[in-house]
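User: Run a structure prediction on this.
Assistant: Running it now.
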Amino acid sequence: MEQETKAPVIDWKANYDVVVLGFGGAGATAARFAADNGAKVLIADVAPYGHEGGNTRYSAQLLGTGTDYDKLKEYYLGLTRPMDLPEDMVETYVRGMCNMREYVKKYLGVEPVSFINDFSKITKGISVLGGYSRIS
């Protein structure tokens, strides 16, 4: 006779101040700042084990940045047309993008590398063919 095994009962009841859905760059940042400000945070992600990281993982860990607030704001508004976004949201996003290099230094402890700023001397020999870059 086969012996019946019962699964343990898990009590899933819990209270959180903030629930973050997705553990990519944006989700991790939101969770970190919420926790740093005293919130009890739950992070949920549906990615299979070993594939966590959201879009950040699959975009070669590239981060969008900018240095010229006005140009970046114009670019962002162009990207989001015809949406009518709240001005305070646009300003927060663009200001954050302009401060991304400092954010990476402060919170990740690394010196960010910029293709445009740090590799401008070699860009003349780079071409993009069928989605692949080639340095000649």
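The first strand starts at residue 18 and ends at 21.
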